[in-house]
User: Fold this.
Amino acid sequence: MNAELRAYRSLTAANLKMYLRNPIASSSLFLVLIAILVLTKFLLNGQGPHTRLVVVNASGSAQAAALMKELRAVPSFDVSEASPADARTLLDQGKSDVELAIPDDLGQADGTGRLVPVRLAVTYRAGTAGEASLPLLKGVVETYDERVLGEIPTVSVTASAVHTRIGGAIDFLLPGLVAFNILGSALMLAAGTFANYKATGVLRRLKATGMRSSVFVLAHSTSSFLLGMLQTAGILIVAGLLFTVQLDVLSLFLLLALGYLVFLAMGLAISGWIRDPQRATAVAQTVAFPMIFIALFSAALPSNITSVTRFLPVSYITDGMEHLGEGARLGAIELDLIWLAGWAVALLVAAGRVFRWD
Amino acid sequence: MAPAEAVSEAAADRPAMVVVSDLHKSYGTVHAVRGVSFDVRRGEVFGLLGPNGAGKTTILEMVEGMLPIDRGSVTVDGIDVAVEPARVRRRIGISLQKTAFFERLTLAELLRLFADIYGGRARVDRLLERVGLHEMASRQVKTLSGGEQQRFAVAVALVNDPPLLFLDEPSTGLDPHARRELWELIEFLRLEGRSIVLTTHYMEEAQHLCDRVAILNAGRILALDTPQRLIHRLLATGFRKDVVLQPADLEDVFLQFTGRQLRER
Assistant:
């Protein structure tokens, strides 16, 4: 095996081993973020997934009232009534997940005394609890049709999706948490570890072997990348178990991988450029904290600020994550990926140029 | 005759492993090394002696290819250090003045890692046995004593089986026991035929170990010869010590109480 490849492989394995043997340093942020997800689940959403169902009831019949009663009997449905205009507004604003329209002819009979067939229109927000609750909603309507209206099928359901930029709590929170983890793991850990290696003389001892700096940087990047991706996968798995999160995995991987590379290169550039390890850590924190703020509160920032911050790499990650959270595919986040790739290349080149062993 | 003296006579005729010519180094306005020239022969232990700030470490690091050379030339085993510093570093063994290793890796893991970096075979047991740490293979560096850490640093410097070793103040901060153990190790490495360049503050250490020494001050070599010849030269000037040497000193008392066998091994 080529000597440099062997050195790269061995250094990568050694780095991973050290991360695993120091879980407090390498995984405390990850564990905090998992805890935030769990707390969000139990504090904000209650014990199980709930669907906010808004009914537009145009029928005053007893059959319509019976349907409302059936819907309200489902524990996971939070049922309310609204006018057609209000119901659409609630859906658009992300304040409801599903809209159900009961037509005015439900319960009306034809000339032979049989109930006229009716179609219930269901509109749901893509990629939310509303989409996941569709089978349950259809099941409730079928049971109602058979039990209340008789054996002849009378009611059918048509469903259509709406794509909206506003999600539930998890849609707001998850992109920020993932970006936070990437920032913490890649930028802070890379900068901190490098600073520590420099301060203690570990890098100097490695330099004494005649090893090329690119081999060390690549090994360090690979091990950090593997750790970061593993932690990000952990966050997404936990989020998937606790909430209704439907994401395009390939797009997500590309987005997070590029995002990770950007911040890793940023961390390497900072710690490679600044000789003093304490200053390197301080600068990394100065760079990281505003971006963490932007990642978590991008939706709440005023437009004059976002017109500037939208060009920061963290904005492309949160923007891409929001799109993916709404069920978008690779094509919808192409621009985010291109910008992140540009940032990654620029920062990796910069990191390579300013790297110093001591 | 001191142990080093016997070897120095034999080493005198050997070809040079290191050739340093008119070496200069400045840090801003400070001219730290001012035209230093010397050579180190194969199988020789060569000492750089001097007070703090004399330029010992700066010279050593330029010769090792760790520090850029401002002016002058250095060849190591025929390789021009200024042209191929990384190639030189791959052929030599280095124990830095302040050596640090990855935390949370064991001694065995570190030796395997360095063997992989050099692209060689890891002879973990043999290396650890040679420096007397064979029973500590699964321990981490931070759990070792100062002397053990220095011996481990030498073990790492031997991973690539180098013909030339650089030891920068290897015994600084060590107690007499640990220092004696390190001396024994260096003598053993000399017997294996390796060239060794070391810096030290301790004259007793230099006299005991070195075939030749260069005495430095303010970036210049003031004297360069075998310890015995340097002493004779001083005596020839009429120099005499005012004190009568004691047959034993406090260090001997210390060793007597804490482990005389180390000296007698």
Notes: The CA atoms of residues 62 and 68 of chain B lie 6 Å apart.
